[in-house]
Design a protein that fits this description.
The protein is built from 7 helices and 7 strands, in the order E-H-E-H-E-H-E-H-E-H-E-H-H-E. The chain is of the alpha/beta class. The chain has a 7-stranded parallel β-sheet with strand order 3-2-1-4-5-6-7, sandwiched between helices. Helix 2 links the parallel strand 2 and strand 3. Helix 1 packs across helix 7.
Length: about 240
């Protein structure tokens, strides 16, 4: 029996990329997964795949920019399965550009989704975890939360914030709750689709094709964190691509 079997795991941004890969892997290992994302049709398709493979799953349309949606996702987990063991805050966007472009709407989207989405997840799950006396936050940051590069200053700022918030939460959590930061490098997802600067978009797409890791690699890192016994701290996992991709 794995350390994942029987756990109830809610995942945001579950309709594609890292979230989708994580849902499939955890369900395969016996978790009951609660999926949240904005694209309902993709959630339904993913849920059908999990059920067909013998897994347990439920889902709800979840926009992490809306605090109510995170509250409803956590409520769904508790109502359907009687508890929530893990919240994976994975939803994120990366419409990067030079600051001179003044793409303020993109800046606001990164702040609202990448930072507020994590905070709204904490606000929804923390009271449940406190009442249960157990719970595990897994917050997806990025290697961009360790190193700032041109065109990515706002995105890097949001991921530095995720790491800071997560570390503060860990310091306040006590010995009953767990907090893990997952910091991937380039991952083979559709993140470049949201980039509005054509030159930066082309550069990122080329780097993705050359260096990016499959989302399944990040899913395995999340599974590893969840499998560790209570007396083993997994504070942060940093996953960097090799030169070969």
């Amino acid at each position: 029996m794995s350390g994942i079997e029987g756990k109830v795991v809610a995942i945001t941004g579950a309709s594609s990329g890292i979230g989708e890969a994580t849902a499939l892997l955890l369900a395969e290992r016996g978790a009951k997964v609660v999926l949240g994302a904005r694209r309902v049709e993709r959630l339904e398709s993913l849920a059908d795949r999990i059920v067909a493979a013998g897994g347990e799953v439920t889902h709800a349309r979840t926009d992490v920019q809306r605090r109510e949606d995170l509250s409803n996702l956590v409520k769904l987990a508790c109502e359907r399965y009687g508890k929530l063991d893990v919240l994976v805050s994975n939803a994120g966007v990366m419409p990067v550009s030079p600051l001179d472009d003044l793409r303020v709407e993109d800046w606001e989207a990164m702040i609202d989704i990448n930072i507020k989405g994590v905070l709204y997840g904490i606000a929804a799950a923390l009271p449940v975890f406190r009442a249960q006396g157990s719970g595990h936050f897994v917050n997806v940051a990025s290697t961009a939360g360790h190193r700032i590069v041109p065109t990515q200053s706002v995105y890097c700022g949001t991921k530095f914030a995720v790491r800071a918030i997560s570390e503060g939460l860990r310091q306040e959590a006590g010995d009953k709750l767990r907090v893990t930061i997952i910091s991937p490098g380039f991952v083979r997802t559709n993140f470049a689709d949201g980039v509005t600067n054509p030159e930066v978009k082309a550069q990122l797409a080329a780097m993705r094709d050359r260096l990016a890791m499959p989302p399944e690699a990040i899913a395995r890192a999340i599974a590893f964190a969840l499998e560790q016994p209570a007396d083993v701290d997994v504070n942060e996992i940093v996953i960097r691509p090799t030169a070969q991709g």
